[in-house]
Amino acid sequence: xxxxxxxxxxxxxxxxxxxxxxxxxxxxxxxxxxxxxxxxxxxxxxxxxxxxxxxxxxxxxxxxxxxxxxxxxxxxxxxxxxxxxxxxxxxxxxxxxxxxxxxxxxxxxxxxxxxxxxxxxxxxxxxxxxxxxxxxxxxxxxxxxxxxxxxxxxxxxxxxxxxxxxxxxxxxxxxxxxxxxxxxxxxxxxxxxxxxxxxxxxxxxxxxxxxxxxxxxxxxxxxxxxxxxxxxxxxxxxxxxxxxxxxxxxxxxxxxxxxxxxxxxxxxxxxxxxxxxxxxxxxxxxxxxxxxxxxxxxxxxxxxxxxxxxxxxxxxxxxxxxxxxxxxxxxxxxxxxxxxxxxxxxxxxxxxxxxxxxxxxxx
Length: 363
Fold this sequence. Notes:
The protein is mainly alpha-helical. Helices cover 60% and strands 3% of the residues. The protein has helices at 32-58, 63-79, 82-97, 101-114, 116-143, 148-181, 186-207, 211-217, 226-254, 269-291, and strands at 2-5, 11-14, 342-343, 346-347. The strands form 2 sheets. The chain has a two-stranded antiparallel sheet with strand order 1-2. It has a two-stranded antiparallel ribbon with strand order 3-4. The longest helix has 34 residues, at 148-181. The radius of gyration is 35 Å and the shape is elongated.
């Protein structure tokens, strides 16, 4: 007898004796509407999760974050298709049962390969909050009359602040929930959350100055063609997100250990780092393509020395070399289009052959 999952996620007994005409059961498929619905929900949930984390950074366990988690994120998860629910559950079970970093990273790879659109939606939603804050900060800078550099710096400051709050809030939320579940008081759980949030917040704030946030803010990005810029930005953003997510997972669990010594602070760190690297690379590469590489330092124009005493004619891009003499003054008496030459006060006349010509009186 084997166990499969029924509608209510409870083990259901199933006979696996195969008959001659029996065929393997094909995995369920989603309709186009279900795919679109799952994608929209995943994007919205990721954006809402960032907002909830930022609020938890300032006040762990606050009512607004609790409302977002229950009425948006959890409700959204329940509204997704059974296929997506099963994929997420499988990923969580594989990470929990993994015996090391290698198995955790393998679980991340299988999940992304099996749900690529869902993963991209999560990446887009996670960047929605920072992107909006950066745009708002740029708007304030423009309204204040700042120059383009000042506007870009305002955007960078906004992106750095929100990225730090979201990273610190993620760690704070993990520490608060684990501590409360272990029986810690409200004061102790809040203290553990604040302790966990410091280092991730610093990493997130510094990370908000590079990669995708930098491009959206309008600051100088990498040089090169579109593909080169996308690859470079993707690598930087992926590395930054991997480090940030791994540290966030570790710090959140470490801070709750005094209330539950059985917690392994390294559990899930590799999975968090791997997922952060993959989603960060997608975000960075996408941002580089969408922004078109603005902010690049223009290539310096080569100045060509011009000999003293003369200049080039209009429309000529470069002056001749120093060994080439300047052009002679034009001859207005023989140049094309010049007026007829006058000699001795008389108009210049030219003989025209008249052989074969005759005069005919007008009718």
